[in-house]
């Protein structure tokens, strides 16, 4: 649970994750804070879009604001997921650490630790890159501010903000909104791979338990004990528990798919355009601070997209390894009745398990290659 707690803390800081123990007046105040954050994001998006002249669009002059507006759209989907599906996310987190996924011995603890270590590395790299990129981008635009007319970010305000107090309040609200966008996008971009890695750990646990079951059954010479349901070492009992765990694991994966499918799809589509625009900016920029900022942001977007695709792809690979392990078992060394049960298990593991986003995009390393190719294609069209 500790690995996922860091994400809830980040979301809590930007008003999108009310602490579970907060009730009554505290909960009301926090809900007001959430409303304020959502309102600021909406106003920032509306004023930004209004400043874009779509009839006489200067693409290169507006590329920065267009990219930022696309990030805002992506942010809306993530905010919706956090607020609307809060209970589902909490239940998912609890389910990861409850029966049948609780750790039963030292070997299972070591398996879980391996994936937790990978998870911590992903957290450190992605969160560090994301937060540094957000602070760098916000600071860079803050230095471009010039009172009384130049705000940190382009927008069309419906009021006169030339007065010093109003100007700085407006500039601060813009910077705050962009920081929240960066934190939400960065943290959500790490939350998804982390949950996928946790599912991978549970698949590996299931594979380990299957090996233990087969070893026990091969060592059992007393055929009469197999038919005794009360005996916890009987073939029926062991395999029945394993099948229940497998069904629970598939349910866990489907729950994750339902939770993130639409959000990941929106991220996938928008990222293709953002990455190509960043490539375009990098190819046309001189060697100055803007080049460093854009390069850093481009690396971040590539890392985020690769993390999502690679983690979802790893789930498919782990399920394939599980299937291979089951089919390569020396099933002929166990009792005939157990062989029949193994046949049922084999039939349940034939179908590939793939994370599908947006109903038609399979999230895998191949999809990462496609998004890179798509970004390059869009880059050629724009260029």
UniProtKB/TrEMBL annotation:
Keywords: Cell membrane, Membrane, Olfaction, Receptor, Sensory transduction, Transducer, Transmembrane, Transmembrane helix
Pfam family of the protein (one): 7tm_6
Membrane topology: Multi-pass membrane protein
GO molecular function: odorant binding; olfactory receptor activity
Predominant location category: membrane
Protein name: Odorant receptor
Subcellular location: Cell membrane
TM helices/strands, residue ranges: 28-47, 59-77, 121-139, 166-192, 259-282
InterPro entries, sorted: 7tm6_olfct_rcpt
GO BP of this protein: signal transduction
Keyword Isomerase attached: no
Keyword Transmembrane helix belongs to the record: yes
Organism: Cotesia typhae
A GO CC term attached to the entry: plasma membrane
